Amino acid sequence: MRTIGEVAAELGVESHVLRHWEQVGALTVRRDGNGYRIYDDNALEQARTVLRLRRVGLSLPEVTAAMSPRKSAAQAIVRAKIAALESEVVHRQRAITFLQHTLDCRHRYLDECPECATFVREA
Predict the structure, then answer these.
(1) I want to staple 107 with a disulfide (CB 3.0 to 4.6 A). Which of 57, 87, 111, 112 is the partner?
(2) What is the mean pLDDT of the segment spanning 81-87?
């Protein structure tokens, strides 16, 4: 059994973050007879899962849905996040290509370059 402070320190987050996760339904924590939060192994693992899902970009509502007991609901959220991340990767790759071209461009001004104009139209 761990206290909120111990779990916060172990995960590298502030205690108020864990309380917020509990408040929005992303984390379930038992209380002792005095009302103090008690983090058993299951609650700690759940908190680790929430943290990991947050770090890969899920919002708290998405985290809550992704941790749903209904596997189909959880999978739908994860699939949607994968699609969004893949789209972001494509967008960022295009940005890198454009910026790389601006470094290598032989034109003094970008608006004089037909390739730069093409990149701008595609955006």
Answers:
(1) 112
(2) 95
Report which of residues 114 and 110 the model is more confident about: 114
Q: Which residues, 6 or more positions from 17, have their beta carbon under 8 angstroms from its beta carbon?
A: 8
55, 15 in Cβ contact below 8 A?
no
Residue type, 25: G
| C-alpha torsion 50→55→61→62, nearest 10 | -100
pTM of the model: 0.75
Q: Is 120 helix (H, G, I), strand (E, B) or coil?
A: helix
CATH code for position 8: 1.10.1660.10
Name residue 37's beta-bridge partners: 31
